[in-house]
Structure formats: structure tokens, C-alpha cells
Design brief:
With 323 residues, the chain is an all-alpha fold. Helices cover 59% and strands 0% of the residues.
Length: 323
């Protein structure tokens, strides 16, 4: 494939990463892998400061930090994360009435993937709140995977949120010790990469259906986070110099294997399975996992409640039945 054989292409990638300086954390994992720890030092320190300040989108920062830790094998860095961080999805409605923001597909796997890796490395990081939720965490991960595999994604075709979902999946695939979750994450990551490889026009712009998108991004459809990753998938050079996703994809063994196995004979019929299954089917899959009521409602919300009136009414009925 062109990426591995054309030195000019590699030079373009190197130049692309070298100018990734604002914010530095976006490219730190690529720099770590290809240029060493010193090149990634600013990015690592910056993202750790953001995490320990408790940024509202801490889950996105944690994913990129976890990739750094596992690539560098500096697991002692985990001890530098505040031990009292709320690294999970359950929050008090009275204290944080916008908690549902974090029940969406991308946020759920961002939190779940990080929590799984932290629990697996609890010799280096101990968070009593997180350890107390361990059984609940495993059930939620299983439910998240099964509902996506059997029912499809809720944020498919979203150039904004699908990259974050892919990052969470890749962290599990590349670093987790849980074989069942790795296998399920591999199925879903392959579906997303298939969509990226065949679902975009030649200029890699996001002129596609955009659920979970924003009006301001429609004005520059070829400059999204996902666009340069798509260009590299197609064997073309990146041009925007702003793709966090691409910087992390190029550090993933799973992604590089995907390129070798799929790109030379790219499939024309990708598994583009969106969330258009009947609600009853989704509910049947979810019910198999016997989640606590709070988690049941969280999944209903995150799997389309805010898109689908029927889901909203069903969620309300379930809630009233348990009052």
C-alpha cells in the first residue's frame, strides 16, 4: 500500500505531525512512537493538567492520555491522576442536571474504555469509587457492545462523534486484557473503518447525513477531525493539520493491520448498520443484561431517546413503573 512504500508520503505525514503544536496533546502519541518521549513531553504534561482540573469533557482527554501511558509503558503516570476524579457516568441529577449529556454513545465508550483499562492497572491507580462500580462497569460494557453489534450505532455518519467512539474502541483493542471485549470492539471498529473507507467522496468531505453534527461544521465539510483520517485511508496525504483521530490511528496496531488486510482489496459493501432496528428489538437485546434501573434508562436515552419519540415515551413509562 502507498503509505508503506512511498517515502514522499511518509515525509508528508512527518511534516503534518511536526506542525501539530496547538494544542500539543493532539499529536503527542504519534510523536511519542516515532520521535521519542522528549518530543511528546509538552503534550503529555498539558493533557494531564487538564485531566486533574476536572475538565467537563475529561473523558476525551483521558482516552488520549491512556494511549500515551500504554504506548510508553509508563504506568506509574497513572498515579499522577487525581484519585478522587469522578471517572464514571453516574452523577447526581440535582448537582448536575445535564448529566444526560454523557449518556450518548461516544461519551459512554470513552468513559467505559478508560475505566476498564484503569481497573486492569489498579496496581498503579486506585480510585475507590471506580473499583466500587467494577461489576456494574462490566455489565454496562457488555450491554454497550451487544446493543451496537446487534442493533447498530446511534451516531453513525456523525463526523463529530464517531471519531471519539473509534478512539475508545481502539484503546480497548490495543491495550485491554479482556479478550471478549477486545473481540467485540474489533467487530465494531472494523465497521467504522469500512464506513470511512467507502462512505466518503473523493475529497473526503463530510457531505453525508450528519446526525449528532453542528451547523458550523457544515460550512467546511472537508475540514473535520475525521477528514484527514479518511484521506490516509484512501492513500492520500492529509491536508488540514488538525486531526486528533489520525494522530492516534497511526499509533494503533489494529489500524495498521486493517490497512494491510482491507485496503488492497477494499470491500464495496461495508457493514453500514445504522440504528434503524425496531425499538422492541433493541429493548430485547438490552433486557438480556438485566441492568439496574438507572443504567437501563441511561441506555434508553443514549441509544436514541433524544432522536425518537417512541423511545422517549417508553423510557418515561419504565420510569413511572418504578416510582
Amino acid at each position: 500500500w502507498k503509505f508503506f512504500t512511498d517515502q514522499k508520503q511518509m515525509d508528508i505525514i512527518e511534516e503534518y505531525m511536526d506542525v501539530q503544536t496547538s494544542p500539543r496533546y493532539k499529536s503527542m502519541n504519534f510523536k511519542l512512537l516515532y520521535h521519542g518521549k522528549d518530543a511528546a513531553e509538552d503534550g503529555k504534561n498539558g493533557v494531564l493538567r487538564v485531566i486533574n482540573r476536572g475538565h467537563i469533557m475529561i473523558d476525551f482527554y483521558l482516552m488520549i492520555f491512556m494511549r500515551y501511558v500504554f504506548l510508553s509503558k509508563e504506568f506509574t503516570l497513572l498515579s499522577e491522576i487525581r484519585s478522587d476524579l469522578d471517572l464514571w457516568l453516574w452523577r447526581d441529577f440535582k448537582e448536575e442536571p445535564t448529566v444526560q449529556t454523557f449518556w450518548t454513545e461516544n461519551h459512554m465508550i470513552a468513559y467505559l474504555s478508560t475505566a476498564l483499562l484503569l481497573i486492569e492497572k489498579n496496581d498503579y491507580y486506585t480510585n475507590l469509587l471506580l473499583l466500587g462500580y467494577q461489576d456494574r462497569l462490566m455489565k454496562c460494557l457488555d450491554a454497550w457492545f451487544d446493543t451496537r453489534i446487534e442493533c447498530g450505532f446511534t451516531e453513525y455518519y456523525s463526523p463529530v462523534y464517531m471519531p471519539y467512539t473509534l478512539e475508545g474502541l481502539l484503546n480497548i483493542i490495543d491495550f485491554s486484557e479482556h479478550k471478549s471485549f477486545v473481540d467485540k470492539a474489533s467487530i465494531l471498529a472494523t465497521r467504522i473503518l469500512d464506513w470511512m473507507a467507502v462512505g466518503f467522496p473523493e475529497d473526503a468531505s463530510t457531505h453525508v447525513a450528519q446526525p449528532r453534527g453542528y451547523v458550523r461544521f457544515i460550512e467546511e465539510p472537508d475540514k473535520r477531525n475525521i477528514c484527514d483520517a479518511v484521506r490516509v485511508l484512501m492513500g492520500d496525504p492529509p491536508i488540514n493539520k488538525n486531526s486528533r483521530l489520525l494522530c492516534n490511528l497511526l499509533t494503533s496496531d489494529f489500524f495498521l493491520q486493517y490497512l494491510l488486510q482491507h485496503i488492497p482489496e477494499i470491500r464495496t459493501e461495508a457493514v453500514l448498520k445504522t440504528f434503524h432496528v425496531p425499538f422492541d428489538k433493541f429493548l430485547t437485546v438490552l433486557n438480556r443484561h438485566e441492568l439496574p434501573l438507572e443504567d437501563h434508562v441511561m441506555f434508553l436515552w443514549g441509544n436514541g431517546m433524544f432522536f425518537n419519540t417512541h423511545n422517549t415515551l417508553s423510557t418515561a413509562q419504565i420510569g413511572r413503573a418504578h416510582v
